[in-house]
Design a protein that fits this description.
This protein is about 35% helix and about 20% strand. The chain has one domain: 3-Layer(aba) Sandwich (Protocatechuate 4,5-dioxygenase, Chain B), CATH 3.40.830. It has twelve helices and eleven strands. It is of the alpha/beta class and about 325 residues long. A hairpin with a 5-residue loop joins strand 10 and strand 11. The protein is globular. The strands form two sheets. Strands 1, 2, 3, 6, 7, 8, 9, 10 and 11 form a nine-stranded mixed sheet that branches. Strands 4-5 form a two-stranded antiparallel ribbon. Helix 8 crosses helix 12.
Length: about 325
């Protein structure tokens, strides 16, 4: 039978690849973000002069690069055969159906090729983010995908499926980010697992704890001799940082306290557009229980006086 041997959790997004000198440029775009009231956050923010100073930004930028190197080493050592990436679709087409949970089961799927083009923060709002880029095919695993669908349905979870991307479309960077951690030339297959971060079709934290347990059981009864890994891609709090929430989530994952994680309030999880990505970590951490997460680092990448930025988090689990 298959073995669930490893999991990794990592923030994704532009902060990872933007020099800290330019973080405040991202913050300027936050003033134009239609998803939240920048001025309201500015009015209640604490004094962030220290956090926004260039030396502090540079120190934190160096820390996140070190953390990513640590994750790459952990992923390489795990040497899994297939990685199930739990994350959230960011680009939703108007004619798409919207599911709470879903799996991609194609043999191949296109992924944007990394390039050195500076991130355009306004692309988040004009619909161009991730488009018009060179694509390359990556390997999926339909057999595991189908097993996840049937096994999770048997365990009480209704799972949608996606068989192909639109012509010329690459998979969301939330799922493609796994290739930044896998060793160059890795033969590992990838199965994207979709977990909605959008309201009203958003699972509760308790439901994601239950999903993780069901994932663990489903992978364990897959008739295969392959080593399976999981990835929580995204989170923690962003585009407005909530350090108290992040600290609570990290404590729950490192202590294995899923009773507490199951009670994370939905209103707090939706305090900023990207913060519901915490649910990815809740599901993956629950799937790896009783193994507890090893925290590599938590980096608060502030980018404006309003407290906008990213609670960057990096960790992994190695099954005993």
């Amino acid at each position: 039978m298959a073995e669930l041997t490893f999991a990794v959790g990592s923030s994704h997004g532009p902060t990872n690849k933007t020099p800290p000198e330019d973080w405040t440029r991202l913050g300027e775009a936050d003033k134009r973000d239609p998803r939240f009231d920048y001025d309201a956050y500015l009015a209640k923010a604490r004094d962030l002069t220290h956090d926004l100073s260039l030396p502090v930004r540079q120190e934190r930028g160096a820390a996140l690069l070190t953390a990513l190197d640590g994750l790459r080493s952990a992923v390489a050592a795990a040497d899994v055969d297939v990685m199930v990436v739990v994350s959230n679709p960011h680009r939703i087409w108007p004619d798409d159906s919207q599911a709470v949970f879903g799996v991609m089961r194609s043999e191949k799927f296109a992924v944007p090729v990394p390039d050195d083009t500076p991130f355009n923060p306004d692309a988040r709002f004009d619909g161009t983010r991730g488009r018009k880029r060179e694509l390359e095919d990556k390997t999926g695993h339909p057999d595991l995908a189908n097993h996840l669908i049937t096994g999770l349905i048997t365990r009480g979870f209704d799972i949608a499926c996606k068989d192909a991307l639109r012509d010329g479309e690459g998979i969301d960077e939330a799922f493609g980010f796994v290739y930044d951690l896998l060793p160059k030339g890795s033969a590992a297959a990838v199965v994207p697992f979709f977990l909605s971060r959008y309201l009203p079709y958003q699972a509760s934290a308790a439901r994601c704890v239950a999903l993780g347990a069901a994932l663990r059981e489903t992978i364990a009864d897959w008739d295969s001799d392959l080593k399976v890994g999981l990835m929580a891609s995204g989170g923690l709090s962003h585009q407005v940082i909530d350090e108290k929430l992040d600290e609570r989530v990290i404590a729950g994952l490192t202590k294995g306290d899923f009773d507490d994680l199951a009670t994370l309030p939905q209103d707090q999880l939706n305090g900023a557009p990207g913060t519901p990505e915490i649910l990815n970590w809740v599901a993956v951490g629950s799937a790896m229980a009783p193994t507890r997460m090893t925290l590599v680092d938590y980096v608060t990448a502030y980018r404006s006086p309003a407290g906008t930025g990213h609670g960057l988090t990096y960790g992994y689990w190695v099954a005993a």
